[in-house]
Amino acid sequence: MFRKNKGQAAMEFLMTYGWAILVVLAAIGALAYFGVLSPDNLLPERCAGPPGLDCLEKASLDASADTIELAFKNNLGQTITLTGVEATSGGDADCAAYSADAGAAMISLDGATAVDISTAPDMRYGVTAILTLDCGVSVVPNDIEGRTSEDFTLVYDSEAGLTQKAGFSIKGRAS
Questions:
Q1: How many other C-beta atoms can be found within 10 angstroms of the C-beta atom of residue 25?
Q2: Which of 144, 170, 173 is nearest to 72 (CA)?
Q3: Prediction pTM value
Q4: Per-residue pLDDT reduced to its tens digit, 99-153
Q5: DSSP string, the chain
C-alpha cells in the first residue's frame, strides 16, 4: 500500500508539470505563428555592406519621395571608380532594379553635388559617399509596421582595373 501511494504521487507530479510545459509550448507556438516573435519585427533597422565599404548609419527610406539614401565610406585602401548599381534578389521594394534601368542612382562624394553614378568621379580612400536610389515606386510594401528591405549590388572598378561588386542589404522603416 505504501508503494502504491508513492507511484501515484510521482505520476501526479509528472502530469501536472507535463501539462504546464505543454501550455507554455502552445503559447510560444501561437506567438511565433502570428509573427510576434519574428526577427524582422524584433531586430533594429540596419545597413550591412562588405568589409571596406562601411555603412556609416542606417539608411534613410523616404516614402513620399520614393528614395533610399545610404551613406558609406571607402575603407578599401585604394581609389575606386563607381560604375553602377545592380538589383539583387531578396529585397522588397525592387528599388535597385528601377534605379539601374532608369539611370536614377545618384552619388554625392564628400558633400559635393550629387551626380549620376555612371559619371561619378573616382572615390578616393577615406571618402564618404551618399548614394541615393530613386525607386520610382513606393518604398513601403504592404506589410504590418511599414518595414521594407532592399538588397543591391554596387559595381566599381579597382585601381588594378578589375570590376568588383559589393553587396549591400538594408532594412528599415519608411518615413
A1: 10
A2: 170
A3: 0.65
A4: 555 556 777 777 777 787 777 788 889 888 888 877 765 555 444 456 677 788 8
A5: -HHHHHHHHHHHHHHHHHHHHHHHHHHHHHHHHTTTT-HHHHSPPEEE--TTEEE-SPPEEETTTTEEEEEEEE-SSS-BEEEEEEE-TT-SS-HHHHHHHHT-EEEEETTPPPEEGGGPPPB-TT-EEEEEEE-SS-S--SSGGGEEEEEEEEEEE-TTS-EEEEEEEEEEE--
